[in-house]
């Protein structure tokens, strides 16, 4: 029996255990950097599997090691995030969230359960591969500045140094049984923009006595789009979107100030820095030119995510070996962001997608919605494929 077949066999053997882990995690979600019970559960399972670990990274993070033969030969890390979102779950399932207003609506329960499953499989096969596999259970992916940034600062990729890191993420647009890969640039950076436009409020019938912040804010929003369309290189994907505009006046009341919130996303760090400076300068100068003022606050989020080309090609080939060519898809650029991006700026990285969609079972909702759920057939694939990719990355040069 080949190693791939042995991994598939173990994934099938442990499938119900992996599902049970996922359902426990789903029923007991915790918000970013508050994953205390989740961390305790992961530690309990690692102890049960006989895998040594160190806890306490960024509060709740865990790093474990599985040493094969010749453990110093090569080190590959696998990452799973553990936090949930502040969403009220609307799924009617036995494992529905017990924590009101908190839900695993982004699939991090799947990621953690898959990594635990991969860990169990790899530990049982550690005499069959050379090198070391590092397991990174990470908190706080959903909250800036991102748990990955803290894990890196606290040495999660060191001692021994990881030459590569792999991560997977659920994708409800991809049918269960299939996975997706993309080599090179994949996901965008993400920065939050907060504008407070100040003027002088008053009666709507006497605009000459006021400095209208609603009008100023409207001009600012339109003008800022010119930064993307006329300053940005059209070959660099960029998005500037504003989703919150608060002007607490009335039909005949001009307010004193307007608050605007939005996001800027791109895939080039130099352009990112330049664009943010231009956004600040244009908002401030336009407000001043119209008689008001604009306070600009920019919260820097995650950098862009780039999949190492050769590593990603290797992983795609390995996925074809494991699942068949018909079940491995090529992904397009994705303007969402992920704090796995921090790892991609530290070492060779491959971030791929795990299909979870099954229309017959009603598993069709997108992530970050109250009805998001998966076809749990994906868990056996998620755990087994991650184990296989780790082994192939150890085995092959790229």
Could you write a compact summary of the structure shown?
The chain is an alpha/beta fold and about 400 residues long.
Give a structural overview.
This protein has helices at residues 3-13, 15-27, 36-49, 108-124, 147-153, 213-231, 269-289, 309-323, 340-344, 377-395; strands at 53-57, 61-67, 75-81, 132-138, 164-175, 179-181, 184-187, 191-198, 202-203, 238-246, 253-254, 257-266, 293-300, 305-307, 328-330, 348-357. The radius of gyration is 24 Å and the shape is elongated. The model has no long low-confidence stretch (mean pLDDT 97). Helix 2 (15-27) runs antiparallel to helix 4 (108-124), helix 3 runs parallel beside helix 4 and helix 4 packs across helix 10. Helix 4 (108-124) links the parallel strand 3 and strand 4. It has ten helices and 16 strands. It has 398 residues and is of the alpha/beta class. The strands form four sheets. Strands 1-2-4-3-5-16-6-15 form an eight-stranded mixed beta sheet, sandwiched between helices. A four-stranded antiparallel beta sheet has the order 10-12-8-13, covered by helices on one side. The two termini are 26 Å apart. Helices cover 35% and strands 25% of the residues. The longest helix is centred in the last third of the chain and has 21 residues, at 269-289.
